[in-house]
């Protein structure tokens, strides 16, 4: 049982920066007595924000001034070299030094991925870190989808390792011993897809520690068929953002249709609780907090357009990962699987 | 103005085969006086099906008996070599010989793509055919998404050509002179994505005939920002199927939530027309009929799990493409663009 839990926050990232991160930080410490937050960013801006919320002297909110910000246009390698006093870098450094047990950022994904890999380093045997997130399904359990954008291309061995890491996360988060692991493909038959996917499938089939159930198609993601779905970062990112787009489209069309007649307008008013609940179930904000797994440390990536609620969800996610010891459990899984996953260990990030 | 329009149908493909294709064929000829359909497949099965619908002797429904079927497990190259009297192959042969002006199949996508390319051949200068489909947006116009699964990997030049072909389709279908063309990527900034995408973007920027507007993310697909969105077949297939999955999930959760209380049950009953209309707008059945473009002939691919309604939509789509002379217009566009797109013409399909 943890008595205290310290999380470093990059306060300046994302589309809204301190406008969402400050109220989220205040809400987080108010609802979790064990939480200490180190707020990395422009001191004056953070002080002003906290002051407005009557939280300037909160004993568990500590400000760490940084004079730089990693913007969305920063090239990852440049951000690493030049932005050593940025809020993103400092938050990662605090995890590296052990002052914080995890960090959260809603900044530039590429830069965060690159910096985190260089600062925290990969766990032994891990080829590439991956961005993983829970996605709602028709069942009570979500599905864990990875990679969501950290790696544009993935070798078969990398996809296999993502399966192992996803399996650890799903197992720890859902309390399931052998989560069902699947590969995202353009058909469920063995002959479908490209060579890389087929080779990854072979590696997964051969691994007794992995409960591999075959391919999934895009339409299977939400059925609950698998607990973990593996794909490369390009495909995962497009799939996740497509979901957001179509969810918004459906809500838009539904609201528009209801506004056409007074009768339906009244119905819409009566239906508000159901629609609100539904949106809560499919709204990405509720599932915010994708994590970078495979690193010697916990890094949670919040959406770039994260609201206060979404940023709060990301802080809560980081706290849960500390409690569930995700990096330690991934390391143990890689040790168990042994040579199968460690044929070419590398901490190179290109 | 066409007086008659002949379309060959592969009656045996897809999950439901003649169960959906026969009633769709009957409905199609009943609602379009100019349409003649050649029904390719098992004569006895088709005769029995038509008999049940009192349409056995319909003057514009002609049966062409074929004794083979291309199943979903068929490897594309094997299907081409061994299934010369299959319903899919015969439908394509009828287009090749000019007996039909277009064909429709809901069979194995890989086999259809491979067979169609070999039988009909590519238009001069076209490197690869692409599967294109209309997808609903928040605006009145749909967006044309390609490729949807015909090409797992695409070179930059191929993606560029998809932009040209998509632009022709959108222009002809929406009546817009310069449709907005975009590339699907994992971020909207110029630095995002892999080298192939960046090179394709350069080719599109340089082409004065193309109204290229930059990158789109998955969430932009449905916003109406672009009229044409280009991606490789793996990404496009996952994006499209993910849409189907999340639309089903939202409907499922909504219906479930409404069933929880009698009050909401009553509301749900009253809301039926709105929900029905909404589902009609986002239901893939309504947007069924992805086309293979870039070939010397019109081939419409219906969903594998196409219902009667969906197969009917695919037949209607084929008829519209004949009227709008899509292949001729694509050929003209490639001639106008000239050498930019024809640096390495090839009709090889691997």
TrEMBL record, chains A, B:
Q: Where in the cell is it found?
A: Cytoplasm
EC number annotated for this UniProt entry: 2.3.1.274
Enumerate the Pfam families for this protein. Answer: FA_synthesis
Q: Pathway, according to UniProt?
A: Lipid metabolism; phospholipid metabolism
Keywords for this entry? Answer: Acyltransferase, Cytoplasm, Lipid biosynthesis, Lipid metabolism, Phospholipid biosynthesis, Phospholipid metabolism, Transferase
Q: Which InterPro entries match?
A: FA_synthesis, Phospholipid_synth_PlsX-like
> Per the record, what are the reactions this protein catalyses?
a fatty acyl-[ACP] + phosphate = an acyl phosphate + holo-[ACP]
The GO molecular function terms of this record are:
phosphate:acyl-[acyl carrier protein] acyltransferase activity
- PANTHER family xrefs: FATTY ACID/PHOSPHOLIPID SYNTHESIS PROTEIN PLSX, PHOSPHATE ACYLTRANSFERASE
- Name the family: Belongs to the PlsX family.
Q: How does it assemble?
A: Homodimer. Probably interacts with PlsY.
The protein's job, in short, is:
Catalyzes the reversible formation of acyl-phosphate (acyl-PO(4)) from acyl-[acyl-carrier-protein] (acyl-ACP). This enzyme utilizes acyl-ACP as fatty acyl donor, but not acyl-CoA.
Q: Which HAMAP family match?
A: PlsX (MF_00019)
Protein name, entry field:
Phosphate acyltransferase
